[in-house]
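User: For my dataset I need records formatted as: sequence, then structure tokens, nothing else. Please produce one.
Assistant:
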Amino acid sequence: MPMSDDEADLFLNEMADVRPLAPEPRIAGRSRTEKEAPGMLYRREAAQRLTQVEEIHLPTTFVDHVRPEAVISFRRDGVQLGVYRRLQRGAYEIEATLDLHGLTVEEAREAVCRFIKDCMRYDVRSALISHGKGQRNKDKIPLLKSFVARWLPMIPEVMAFHSAQKWHGGAGAVYVLLKKSERAKEVTRERLGLSSGKPEC
């Protein structure tokens, strides 16, 4: 039932001092009073690490199988032949190692990515990755070896790799030569008394 003119005037007089409430700012997806639950920070950091690993986009399907005793190798343009031959012979000191035995393909991919990142962080130049020859799986297919051979050339920090000498695991492991970090390059330039020059691989 519509209000009379007198009722309308009375209502407006009563409401004259009323002001609408200002909306409170809100953060999407999180209430104003929400606090960090125990373990929240760890889960967030773990998710960030996983995102970093996935950024490289290493495939986990459709790989050409290599033979268990096959020698796998790779040399990026710019790597001197003498440097590569020293890597082949196992002449470089192994500064870091990674063992992939017993891992699934997905676990191995994550481990390889994290290993390369750690090597770059600590200026590791020469590393050894043990991938095995597939003798522990029922089909006797060197699956991890096949994927390692496919993954390593896809990682920009990997300058070269070659199957290891028998005392380092032979065809079941691979030497990896990593790119020199900018920090390590600067140290070398300072040691040689150079203020600038051609970047080293």
